[in-house]
C-alpha cells in the first residue's frame, strides 16, 4: 500500500511501448546495412543527384516558357536559345531517371545482403533455442512472423531511402528556391501546407495502425490454425472434424475481414483529408502567382514553375500516408522477428567451453542427477548409474518413469538442476553442445522425416556420404530391399513428416541414418517399437552388431529387446529401483520379474 503523498509511477501506454520496440528494431537493423557502408554512401549521393536534377526541371521549364515570349521574327532566339534549353531540359529528365536507377543498382546488394543476414541469424538462433521453446511454439504464427520480418527489411529500405528521404530533400530545396526567387509568402504557404499535411497524415496513420496490428494478429492466428489442421490431416479425418476445423479457421477469417474493413474506411478518410489539404494549398499558391503575373511582378514562366513545383511535391506526398503506414508496419514486423531473436537460450555453452575430448570408447555417467520440467513435478530424483565404455546398459520401466528424459539430458536439450552428466569424465555442461551431439547417435521412439527423398533422409545422418554408404546403411537397417522395390528407389519422396511410409519403414530409415553417422555413443529409445515381431528380431541383430564396441544406452518398454544388455536399470517414478542382468533381475523376483511375467502373458495370449 502506498504511503500518503506517494504517487504511482505512470505506466507506459501500449503505443509508447510499440514505438520503443519499433525504434529499437530500426537501430538493430542499421548494423546489417552498415556492412555495406560504401554502397550506402554511394546510393545516398545518387539519390541527392536525382533530386537536384528533378528540382532543376521546373527551373529550366520557366526559362523555356519565358524565352518563348520573344518578339515574332527573332530567329536567333527561337532557334538557338530554346534548342539549348530543350536539350538541357531533356538532359535533366534523363539524369533524374539515371541517378535513380544507379541508386537502386548500387543499393540492391546492401538490401538483399541485409535481408539474407537477418534471415540466417534468425534461423540459426531458432535452432539454438531449447527444446522447451520448440515444444511450446506455434509453427504457423512463428513462420509468418519470420516471413514478414525478412520482407520488412526490404520494405523499410525501399520506403525510407527511395521515397521518404528523397521527398524531404526535395521539400527543402523547393522551399529554399521559392523563398530566394520570390518572397517568403510562397515558402510560408508551402511550409504550412506541408506541415499540416504531414501532421494530419502521421496522426491519422498512427490511429489506423491499431487496425493493421489487429489484422496481423488475426492473420497469424488463422495461419496457425490452418497449418496445424493440415499437419494433423489424418487426425481430422479420423474424427470427422473437417467442419469443426473449417469453423475455427473461419472465426479468424471473419475477424480479419472485420478489422480490414475498418482499416479501409479509415484509409478513405485519410485520402480524402490529404486531397483537401493539397487542393487548398495549390489554389492559394496559384492565386498568389496569378496575382503576381497580373501585377507584372512575375512572368508566365514563374507561374508555370510554381505550378510544376507544387505538382512535383504533392505527387509523392499523395503516398505519404501509405508510405508512413508501411514503414510503421515494417518496423512492427521487424520488431516481432527480433523478439524471436531475443528469446533467451535456456541451454547455452559455458564461457570458454571446449570441444569434447574422446580417446577410444567413452564412458557415460549420471551422478546423483535431479531434474524437473516443472519445479512442481520432479521427473528424475537422485539418479546415478554408469554405462561403461563399449558396454550396453538398458533402462526399462513404466511410461512416465523418466526413461526418455535421460536421453534428452544427455543431448543437453535441458540441463540438470542438480548432479551432473559426464562423458569420458567430462561434465557435458563444460564442453560445447556441438561436440557432445556429434558424439551421439539416436534412434528415437517417434521418427519424423523431412519431406524429401529416402536417400536424403538416410544421408542426413552424415551429410556428404556417398550413395554406396547410404545403401550400406539401408542394408544394415533391413530397408534396402523395400526401397529398391519402389518405382523411384532411393529418390522416393517420403511426404510431410514421412507420412507416406509406414511406422516400421520410418523407424528403419531412422536406424539407417544413425548407423550411417557411426558415432561412439548410441541411444536406442524404443528403437524397434514400430516393428512387427519378425522384423524386430532381424533389426535387433543388426542393432546388436552396430552396438558392438560402442557405448550404448537402450531405453525400452518391451523387455525382450534388452535381455542381452550388460546391465538393466528398472526405473519407477524417477528413481532406479532395481539393477542387474536379465537373469539376476528375474532371480530377485521384484519389479522386473513382474514386468517380464506380464509381457510374456500378453505375448502368449496373442
List the helices and strands and how they pair.
Elements: H1 14-34, H2 37-67, H3 75-79, H4 81-128, H5 131-136, H6 139-181, H7 184-231, H8 233-238, H9 242-294, H10 300-317, H11 320-341, E1 364-371, E2 380-387, E3 392-397, H12 403-410, E4 418-423, E5 426-427, H13 433-438, E6 440-443, H14 454-459, H15 467-476, H16 480-485, H17 503-517, E7 521-525, H18 533-547, E8 551-556, E9 567-572, E10 575-580, H19 582-588, H20 591-605
Parallel strand pairs: 3-8, 3-9, 6-7, 7-8
Antiparallel strand pairs: 1-2, 1-4, 4-5, 9-10
Helix pairs in contact: 1-4, 1-11, 2-4, 2-6, 2-10, 4-6, 4-11, 6-7, 6-10, 6-11, 7-9, 7-11, 9-10, 15-17, 19-20
Question: What structural class do you assign from the helix and strand content?
Answer: alpha/beta
In CATH terms, what is the fold-level topology of the largest domain? ABC transporter transmembrane region fold
What's the CATH H-level homologous superfamily of the largest domain?
ABC transporter type 1, transmembrane domain
Gyration radius (Cα, Å) is 36 Å
Q: What does the main sheet amount to?
A: 6 strands, mixed
* DSSP helical segment count: 20
What is the general shape?
Answer: elongated
What are the segments in which pLDDT stays under 50 over at least 5 consecutive residues? Answer: 1-11
Name the average pLDDT.
Answer: 78
Distance between the termini: 69 Å
Extended strand count: 10
- The strand line-up of the biggest sheet is 6-7-8-3-9-10
Number of domains: 2
Per CATH, the class of the largest domain reads Mainly Alpha
DSSP strand (E) fraction? 5-15%
Amino acid at each position: 500500500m502506498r504511503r500518503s503523498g506517494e504517487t504511482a509511477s505512470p505506466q507506459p501506454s501500449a503505443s509508447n511501448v510499440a514505438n520503443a520496440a519499433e525504434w529499437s528494431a530500426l537501430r538493430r537493423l542499421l548494423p546489417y546495412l552498415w556492412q555495406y557502408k560504401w554502397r550506402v554512401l554511394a546510393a545516398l549521393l545518387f539519390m541527392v543527384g536525382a533530386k537536384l536534377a528533378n528540382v532543376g526541371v521546373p527551373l529550366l521549364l520557366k526559362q523555356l516558357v519565358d524565352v518563348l515570349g520573344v518578339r515574332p521574327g527573332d530567329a536567333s532566339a527561337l532557334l538557338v536559345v530554346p534548342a539549348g534549353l530543350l536539350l538541357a531540359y531533356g538532359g535533366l529528365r534523363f539524369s533524374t531517371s539515371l541517378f535513380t536507377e544507379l541508386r537502386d543498382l548500387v543499393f540492391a546488394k546492401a538490401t538483399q545482403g541485409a535481408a539474407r543476414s537477418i534471415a540466417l541469424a534468425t534461423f540459426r538462433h531458432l535452432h539454438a533455442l531449447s527444446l522447451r521453446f520448440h515444444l511450446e511454439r506455434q509453427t504457423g504464427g512463428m513462420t509468418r512472423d519470420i516471413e514478414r520480418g525478412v520482407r520488412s527489411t526490404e520494405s523499410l529500405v525501399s520506403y525510407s531511402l527511395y521515397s521518404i528521404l528523397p521527398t524531404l530533400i526535395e521539400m527543402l530545396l523547393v522551399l529554399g528556391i521559392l523563398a530566394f526567387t520570390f518572397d517568403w509568402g510562397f515558402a510560408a504557404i508551402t511550409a504550412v501546407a506541408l506541415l499540416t499535411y504531414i501532421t494530419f497524415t502521421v496522426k491519422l496513420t498512427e490511429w489506423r495502425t491499431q487496425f493493421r496490428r489487429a489484422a496481423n494478429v488475426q492473420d497469424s492466428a488463422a495461419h496457425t490454425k490452418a497449418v496445424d489442421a493440415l499437419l494433423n490431416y489424418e487426425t481430422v479425418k479420423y474424427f470427422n472434424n473437417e467442419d469443426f476445423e473449417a469453423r475455427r479457421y473461419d472465426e479468424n477469417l471473419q475477424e480479419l475481414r472485420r478489422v480490414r474493413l475498418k482499416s479501409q474506411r479509415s484509409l478513405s478518410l485519410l485520402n480524402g483529408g490529404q486531397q483537401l489539404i493539397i487542393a487548398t494549398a495549390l489554389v492559394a499558391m496559384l492565386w498568389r502567382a496569378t496575382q503576381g503575373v497580373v501585377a507584372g511582378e512575375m512572368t508566365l514562366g514563374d507561374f508555370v514553375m510554381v505550378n510544376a513545383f507544387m505538382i512535383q511535391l504533392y505527387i509523392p506526398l499523395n503516398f505519404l500516408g501509405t508510405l508512413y503506414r508501411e514503414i510503421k508496419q515494417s518496423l512492427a514486423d521487424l520488431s516481432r522477428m527480433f523478439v524471436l531473436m531475443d528469446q533467451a537460450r535456456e541451454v547455452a555453452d559455458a564461457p570458454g567451453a571446449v570441444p569434447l575430448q574422446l580417446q577410444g570408447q567413452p564412458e557415460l555417467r549420471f551422478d546423483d542427477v535431479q531434474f524437473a520440467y516443472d519445479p512442481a513435478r520432479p521427473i528424475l530424483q537422485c539418479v546415478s548409474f554408469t554405462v561403461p565404455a563399449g558396454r550396453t546398459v538398458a533402462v526399462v520401466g513404466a511410461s512416465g518413469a523418466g526413461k526418455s528424459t535421460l536421453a534428452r539430458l544427455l543431448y543437453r536439450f535441458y540441463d540438470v538442476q542438480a548432479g551432473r552428466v559426464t562423458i569420458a569424465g567430462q561434465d557435458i555442461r563444460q564442453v560445447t553442445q556441438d561436440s557432445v551431439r556429434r558424439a551421439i547417435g539416436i534412434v528415437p521412439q517417434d521418427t519424423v522425416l523431412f519431406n524429401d527423398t529416402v536417400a536424403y533422409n538416410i544421408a542426413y545422418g552424415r551429410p556428404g556420404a556417398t550413395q554406396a554408404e547410404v545403401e550400406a546403411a539401408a542394408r544394415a537397417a533391413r530397408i534396402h530391399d523395400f526401397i529398391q522395390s519402389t518405382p523411384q528407389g532411393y529418390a522416393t519422396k517420403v511426404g510431410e513428416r514421412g507420412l507416406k511410409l509406414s511406422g516400421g519403414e520410418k523407424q528403419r530409415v531412422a536406424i539407417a541414418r544413425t548407423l550411417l553417422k557411426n558415432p561412439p555413443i548410441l541411444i536406442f529409445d524404443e528403437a524397434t517399437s514400430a516393428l512387427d515381431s519378425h522384423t524386430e528380431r532381424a533389426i535387433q541383430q543388426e542393432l546388436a552388431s552396430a552396438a558392438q564396441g560402442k557405448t550404448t544406452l537402450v531405453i525400452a518398454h518391451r523387455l525382450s529387446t534388452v535381455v542381452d544388455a550388460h546391465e538393466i536399470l528398472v526405473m519407477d517414478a524417477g528413481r532406479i529401483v532395481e539393477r542387474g542382468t536379465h537373469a539376476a533381475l528375474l532371480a530377485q523376483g521384484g519389479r522386473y520379474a513382474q514386468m517380464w511375467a506380464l509381457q510374456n502373458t500378453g505375448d502368449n495370449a496373442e
